[in-house]
Amino acid sequence: MHGTASPPGKQTSRRKWIRDAATLLAAPSAASILPASVRAAAAGANGDVRLAFVGAQRRGDQLIDEFRKLPGVRVVAICDVDTQMFDRQLRKFDGKGRKPRTCVDFRRLLDAADVDALVVATPDHWHALMTVRACQAGKDVYVEKPVSHNLFEGRRMVEAARKYDRIVQAGTQNRSDVGLAAAREFLRQGKLGRIRLARGFDFPRRESIGKVDGPQPIPASVDYNLFMGPAPLLPLMRKNLHYDWHFVWPTGTGDCGNRGVHTLDHVRWLIGSEGLPAGAISVGGRFGYDDDGQTPNTQITLFDCRPVPVLWELMSLPAEKGAEEMPSFRGRRSSMVLECEGGYLTGGRGGATAWDWNNKRIEHFPGDGGRSHYANFLEAVRTRKREIQRAEILEGHASTAFCHVANVSYLTGAKRSPAEIRRSIAPHALLAEAFDRMAAHLAANEIDLETDRLVLGPMLILDAETERFSGQSADKANALTSRDYRQPFVVPEEV
Length: 495
Hints:
31% helix; Dihydrodipicolinate Reductase, domain 2; 18 strands; 2 domains; Rossmann fold; 6-stranded parallel beta sheet; 12-stranded mixed beta sheet; alpha/beta
């Protein structure tokens, strides 16, 4: 168990809070304490899928808008640890029927008779526990990417969905993009010949998250204990509580889990990769500013994957210092390049394009950004057909696992000079090529890798059946497949 001190700005003692949490976990069914009017409405749902949204910040805000557009959907509850989110969300329902109720603690939703499914858009470290508990309570779940904070959590989510026969959909909506679906069929028909290599790219411009000189005050509207949940209860040591949790390890998975999971997911889908990678090696670091972020903003990872290797690259600094434009690969800004015998395929969310090796366009596949992803989840909820889901939790777990393996390699690595890195990765020609490109990119941003060094991770070997590492650095790597959970927010060993 981590941390015993109460967070700054809170009057409630840690002891009282744990007592209250334990009482809540043993509380009577939420359905039994609902107002009579709500119980009556739940009994007469007329086929509506009744949704409760957990997390109403950026992505949660978008998901509320997307789901409420669809016919046969009723938003019955909105949950967030920050109460200042509620007014904005409730205004969306002015003059449009019954407003959803609000709550701060998601556990109030688990036994609610008028909730069919939870839509989870919280920080990464909450996804697994909420999904497991929802499955145990007989609820279906739409959970945002990355679906988990570590490998252990992802597998427990799959097990919970199977044991309780629940519909659990991952928020990797690129699998619903009509252009990518058409491109996938094009590849399956052999129109470009055999796929030889899959490249994934993420070039999101990221600025510094700032640097603080001490613990920051917690907004009065936030229940910080619930915000931290399974993570250590540590003082807030960054300027912004919200969103910047992505870039610290206790709550986030960096841009590998935030952005890379989408890219790696649609790459896996198009090349026909099943399950987890057999291993990976990662090189990276955080460069260009001195801030409170912990996760890499520059990272390359080579995955031992079937049917072909996958090389993923992250660059969050501009093409060169002071430039407005971001990096590109061979003059193209694309999240995916699949190299085949007869040409290559570029694209990502919004569609894809097939080219021959003379850079002549063969065919274009316009996409729609995966707009039907939410309707696909609802159809699965109504029909109880798990197999019709485009991003069922097992696929979400596999794609997220790629991100975890990349980050575990990075976290078990050590800082090395460019010469040391080149010697170590020389047997991996693809990684060596990507390293030269990354080094040139950092040099263009006036970063001296002799003094500001990159981290070289080990080549990890992963058993896809046990989801455990073996070989070099296995002990350190396996220690990162789970975490020490803070009571009472423990992801169970057995679901």
